[in-house]
Structure formats: structure tokens, C-alpha cells
Design brief:
By secondary structure, the protein is an alpha+beta fold. It has a single domain (3-77), classed as VSR Endonuclease (Endonuclease, Chain A). It has helices at residues 3-12, 54-69, and strands spanning 23-28, 31-37, 42-46, 73-77. It has a 4-stranded mixed beta sheet, sandwiched between helices. Helix 2 links the parallel strand 3 and strand 4 (73-77). It starts with a helix and ends with a strand.
Amino acid sequence: MTDAEKIIWELVRNRKFRNLKFRRQQIIDGFIVDFYCEELRLCLEIDGGVHDDEEQRKYDRERDAVLAQRGVRIVRLR
């Protein structure tokens, strides 16, 4: 986990955030998301510098579209 992911995990783990259960490194439809709350069908993605690469941005857009089709909302944090 990156330092940013550790900070977010500490904020949401053990139902610390609004009593919602988050899982880390959750697999959804073959994709690994950083954090996922099933109750809200919400994934939190912590984007570092690697996401500035055009190929990575293209992959992220395609992945986000697949997840959105499954009813998953994606929030990206930088």
C-alpha cells in the first residue's frame, strides 16, 4: 500500500467512516479496486503519478466504464 492508501485505509477501516464497511484491494468483475463499500456500490481509487500516463488513463477510463455498467460508482482521489 502507498502512503496515501494507508491514510485512507486508516480513515475508513473498521467502519470508522459513517459506520460503512470498506474492503481494500477488492476484486470486482476481474478488476482490483483500492477500496470498496458494497452498501453504497462505491469504490475509492487513490491515483498516484502512474495515472498521468496516457495508456494508464485509457485503461482507467475503460475499467471505469465496465464498473459503471455494473452499477459501481468510482471516486478518484489524487
